[in-house]
Write a structure and sequence with these properties.
With 228 residues, this protein is α+β, with helices and mostly antiparallel strands. The chain has a single domain, classed as Butyryl-CoA Dehydrogenase, subunit A, domain 3 (Up-down Bundle). Helices cover 49% and strands 12% of the residues. A 5-stranded antiparallel β-sheet has the order 5-4-3-2-8. Strands 1-9 form a two-stranded parallel ribbon. It has a two-stranded antiparallel ribbon with strand order 6-7. Helix 3 runs antiparallel to helix 5.
Length: 228
Amino acid sequence: MCHVIVTCRSMLWTLLSIVVAFAELIAFMSADWLIGKAKPSSSEDVDNRTGGSQEPYHPTLGIYGRCTRISHMQLSRRDTLCGPYAENFNEIASGFWQATAIFLAVGIMMLCAVAFVSVFTMCVQSIMKKSIFNVCGLLQGIAGLFLILGLILYPAGWGCQKAISYCGPYASAYKLGDCSLGWAFYTAIGGTILTFICAVFSAQAEIATSSDKVQEEIEEGKNLICLL
């Protein structure tokens, strides 16, 4: 018989696991890892209402994508074109970024799998006498290590030709040049920290769902158990 067990700690772990997986996925897909040096508007890019040139814009560069402004179009939000600059894996600008993409992708897939499984932990708490919470926590810890490796290797690729075209000639490995870090990089770091928090908190979720009070309510014949 399936017993639905919901505790404050298990629900918080589930929600946090889902948030972490989505945060890392969105960061990975974003082009806002590097914010390039300001580029002046061309002579054709003139505001029709004021007759003056628009403010310089900052192109952005991600692991495999980029956002830039199309110079022949009238300045508006619609002239910013975002999309992948690499049509396949081999066209990613740097070997270090290729390694980053692999490590991050593996880590994110593990986090997404854990997020999916965490939803069902309300009904199933163990498989083959192994606690799902402990297994998921272990997977989150491993995923966090993959994410760390990816984030460490990413700055090593700042010396590639693609990054130099955005960040200027002074850009090199672990030196930004004229670029600055975008929100996606910080989101990936924050998600990595939360990944390890989730891994530790999974043990608390397991303790909460296997407590004596839960067992007492199961023995009383209750199928829905909600505890703070």
